[in-house]
Structure formats: structure tokens, C-alpha cells
Model the fold of this input.
Amino acid sequence: MLTAVLAFAAGGIVVAATGHNPWTAYKGIWDGAGFNWLFHVPWDTNTIHLDAFNLSQTLLTTTTLILTGLAVAFPFRCGLFNIGGQGQYLVGLIVANWIGVDFASWPTLPHVLLGIGAAAFAGAVWAGIAGFLKATTGAHEVISTIMLNWIAIWGGQYLFGQGGPLQNTYNTAAPESESVAQSAHIPVFWGSSLLQGLDYGFFVAIAALVVFWLILNRTTLGYEVRAVGFNPEAAAYGGINVRRKYIQAMAISGAFAGLAGALDMLGYLFQFGVLDVQASQIGFFGIAVALLGRNTAIGTGIAAFLFGGLLYGTTRGLNPNVFDPSLAGNLTSMIQGLIVLFVGADIFILYIWNARRKVRRRRAEAAAT
Amino acid sequence: MTNHVEPLEETPWALRPKAIATVGSALGLAAFWSAIPPFTARSPLVPILIGVLAIAAGLWALTRGARRLGWGAVASGVIGLCLGYVATRSSSGNLHVVFASELIAQVFVFATPLTFGALGGMVSERSGVVNVGLEGMMLMGAFWGVYGADKGGSWVVGILTALAAGGLFALLHAYWSIHLRANQIVSGMAINFLALGVTGYFFEQLYGNKNIPAGVSTVPNVALPGIDHMSYVGPAIGDLNLLIWVGIIFVPLSYFILFKTPIGLRVRACGEHPRAADTVGINVYAVRYAAVIVSGMLAALGGAFLSIGFGGGSFTENMTEGRGFIALAAMIFGNWRPFGAWGAALLFGFSTALAFRLPVYSSSAATLFQALPYVLTLIAVAGVIGHSVPPKADGQPYVKQ
Done:
């Protein structure tokens, strides 16, 4: 949490240095994220609707971030760095769109389940390629997942683009997909389904956090994954099939990311276009979420909520009169970068800590003598 | 199996398997080349004949020990044959649209940022620091380059500010990776996010809704006297941007520095075996710092080419659009070597340039074509086409004892 505070402080300095008031900026983001709703008294009805709406949107983003965060956190516990969350997310999104558009005659529950299941499987396969390459040829997963990201990005642009197989049929000039059939929409439980309310996918993400914790801490697979993460040589010596763990860890990670894509597509996006493929960044935010959450279930959940608020609060939720959203969106990228940077340098913070302790001890010794 | 090693002095160079395989690879290219302008052979026999020759040369080399190059020649022959055959079946008018001589100029345009980035990544990784932050350093170069050119009034100032900005972020990466011993990939990704935020924020802050004003001083083109008006060569290389030529010159230059000078030896020693380097009195930290900063500056030059070189003095948020990652791929594809990296950059540049022209045939296929460099790199890191061997100590922080 200290890292987050440091990153926000550094972001605030930039805001202040460029002639804006960091307090109003952060207050604007806070309001935009709908966090006010949590401190509302029930009889105050002035802004409660807007705040509730904003909070539901923040939670919608949180849903995605929890899953893309888990997609980074799980392989991390196995000693693998999955930068491919974005690609796996897109693959899940594409498959969910395809299933959602076809099979339109199905009833809602099986249709949604099929979409979610197929998307998670597709994500698992996509990430599994990187795991397989790592296990069989030793290809570094960072490089292969970066490449798989770009293949997914260009593949998505091809599929949704003009003349692509998943392009809509009603307007061939528009490079976007068909809209998901009504039967594949995940029902909304907070807000209006017409106004992009919060859908039950949120609970799927919460359940995924529990599943993540259960797999890691209560199963043999989780034990072995963590053992490989601590020390692959020792794990191999202890009789664990390290290569298989690499593939499994990546596949599970990809399933989380694919699930994120499915929940977004069937929960509120329903349609996706070439420009959306190019602009989507949510998978990359998973890296910051997982790192900030220290790759634990509860940490990832909290970090996802923080970033969800930050992402929504700096874009559509932000009142443009308070702080320019185009500045704020970039502020998010900056804070994200700083958080990743600071987490990466844990040793740096420990170093300062130790140095201070050393100075204090020396002072104490000097005082004693 | 007996390992028969032929004494080198007795075989003339031109008959060694490696040389034959290289010729085979070139023939594979020629098979395709013969069917497109300016030659435009219309009979399918021509590319097939040349392609078969290439495959034969590859197979011959394969059986005589040059496995990697041999397979390369076979692959090149097969691809050249197929593409050449397809080209002879295609209408000559379309061919002239796609393979106009401007295509070569465009290949250079697309390859130049990759060349700078790949060379930068190579310098850093050869010294033992993984640089996933190329993308961010490139983006910094792109924005601060155009800012410097705008406020300083000259593209020279732009280049200098780009170098400073790229160097500064590289310094951050170096400090994190070398002194703080952070995970270098995490730190590199952080650089990317940070650069995206910083350039976007300052672009909005300094230019707001207005774009960069027109008429920013840009890096000039170099008109080669005598060549620029020739028929085929002129449009191809007669009027290229100065930075393109700088990039081309940097390839042999970096080869020379890295592999033929004591400085290069020191850099490579730090990347292969830092302890040994330290033992013989090389300051590993200093070498790595220098290499990473040079790396950031090179990447920034690539970025500056996008904004004030070919870009004509413009900037858009996230302008590099993943070119830093392709540069990284080019470096790996080129096996951490200057000419290899340049070849990969040209190949990727060619595929991008081609993708921009293929819509005459089919626009959706052209989009899919853009994924080709990434697929190739995936295959390359998987070790199917020879094995990519990174420097031994790449990515490992060095702790002095």
C-alpha cells in the first residue's frame, strides 16, 4: 500500500508542477469513481443516483481487472511472468462474441455458460502456447506472450474488420462485430440493463478470487506451483514435473483472462470493433494490479478495486470541469507505471527502511556512550 | 556417426556449405524477385526453376553440416517459389501497384525505427540488462523530439532533446536493474507504462486540443545527386530521410564496435560472464550503465524518426504502437547480432510495407498479414529456425563481492 501512496504522491507532484491543483484533481477522480456513494447518508438524494451509477461502473471495471490481475498473479507464483493477459483477454472476448452471436436460439443460462466456458478455454489455449513453448523449448514466456498479444490484436482486427468472418452483416462499411444475442446477455442486478448496469459477472470474478486462493493453498497443484515458483531445481529434485507445471500455470492464467473477456463481452460490451481492439489496454493493467496486490487473492481484489476506480474515475466518470479527462487518463498510465516501478524495486524501499533503522541505532548507541 | 571436419584451408571459401547455403537463400529471394517488377517474368517456369535451384543448394548444404543456413535456404526457396508462382498468376497491373519501386523506400521507412530499437536493445542485452522498456524509450524520443524541434526551432535541437529524454528513462531503467536489482522485465514494463503516461500527459498539457503546429523543423531528406532521377533506383533510394541513412550506417558501426574493439569486448564480457569481467578489472556497473543509456538513446532516435523524421513533425498519443516490441522481436530474431537484427528489421519492415499495399487484393488478408512478424518471432524463439541464444548473463543483476 505504501507503494500506491508513493505513486499517487508522485503523480500529484506532476499535476501540481503543471499548474493544476492535485487535491481537486484527486477529489474529482474520487467522485468520478463513485466512491462517495459509500459515505452517503440515505436521506441525501441530491447526487446519490449519479454516485451509485459511477460506483457500479467502477465495479464493472473492477470485475475485469480482478480476472486480468489473477491472470498475471497465478503464473507469477510459478515463477512465470505473463505479459500476455491482453492477448488472452482479447481471445476470450472474440470467442464470447462468436458464441454470443451464434446459438441465438439457446435459452439464457446454457448460452451464457457456453460463452463463458468457451472463452475461458480459448484463453487457456492461447496462454498454454506460451507455457508449452517454455516447457518444451525453453522459449522465454515474456517474449512469447508479447508476440501472442500482437497476434491476437491483429487477429482481432482481421476478424472484426472489413471482410472479416466476424464482421456484422448489416453495415459492411463499419469494421465492428455483430451484437451479442439477447439470450447471451448476463443479467444485471444493480442499475438498469439499458444503462450498462452491474451484472452478475461481478460475482463470477469474486468467485474466481476464491478459486485462485483455493487452488494455490488447498490443492496439490497449488502446492507444486508454489514450489516451482520458489525454486524450480529443488521442485524437480522433489519429484515435481516442472514442465507440466509451467503449462498448467499458464493455462489456468489464460482461463482467468479469457473469462474476463467473456464477462466483458456478455456483461456489457456486447459488440466490439477494430478501434476497440486497438484501444483496449485492460489486460496490461492486470500486471499493475497483480504486482500491487503482491500476487495474493485478497491483494489482487483490493488492487483491482483501486485501479477500477482510477480507470473509471479518470475517464467517463470524471467531471470535465474539475479536471481534464484527457490529462487524467494519462495520469492513470503514469500512476500505473510508478506503481509497477516501485513494486519492482521492493529492495529499494527496504533499503531506505534499513538505512533509517541503522542511523537510528547508531544515534541510540552514540547517545548511550 | 563420425564427425568429419574438413580442414578449412583446402576448401575454397566459395564451395563451403555455408557459402552455398547463403547463395541458396539469395536464390530463394530471386525466385520471387524474378516474378515482380521490374523484371516481371510472366512464365511460372522462371520462379519455379530458380526456387528449385535454391532448395537444391539448401539441401546440399544441409547434408554437409550447415544445418541452420541450409534449412534457411530451403525455406527461402520454397517460399520464393510459391510467392513467385502466385505472382505470375496475378494480373500485371496489380503487381505494378504493389511492387512499385517506392516499396523499397517504404521498407526502409518502416524498418528504420525497428533498426534503431533493435540495435539499442542489442547493446543493452549484450551488456546483460534485458530491455523490455524499448517501447517506452522510443515513445519518449518521439514526443520530446518533436517538442524540442518545435520550441528549439530546429530539428537538431529535437534530436538532442529526444536523446536526452530516451537517455533519462534508460538511466532510470539502469538504476533500477543495476543498483536496485529489481526484476528487469518488471522495470522495463514500468518504463513503458510510465512513458505512455508522461508523453500523453505532457502532450495534452503543452498542446491541449491543438495539434503540434505545422511547419515544425524536420529531419531533411538526402537527395543523392545522379541517383535521385534514375528510373527504378531513384524512387527507391534516391530521396531517403537522413535518419534512415544514419540507421543503415549504425549497423556496421555497431558491429565493428561490439565485435572488433576493446570497448565491445568489455560490453560483451559483462553480458556473458560479469564475474570474470570484474576479475580482470572491468567496472561491470559502469559498462552496464553506459550500455543501457546508449540503448535508450538509440531507441529514442527511432522514436524521433517517427515524429520529426518520416512523421513530418507530428505526434499522437501512443505513437510507437508497439514498434518497440517489434524491435525487441527483431533483435531476438537476429540472434542478438547487428546484421541479423537489421535483416529482421528489414524483413518486418517489408511485411508492414507490403501489408499497406496488399489491399489491392484483399483488405482483410492485408490486416492478417501484419501479424506475420510476430508469428515468425514466436517460431524463432521456439527454436524451430535455429536456436536464438541470448547472452549468458542477460537479465541477471550482478552483485559485487
Summary: The radius of gyration of chain A is 22 Å. The domain at 2-368 of chain A is CATH 1.10.3470 (ABC transporter involved in vitamin B12 uptake, BtuC).
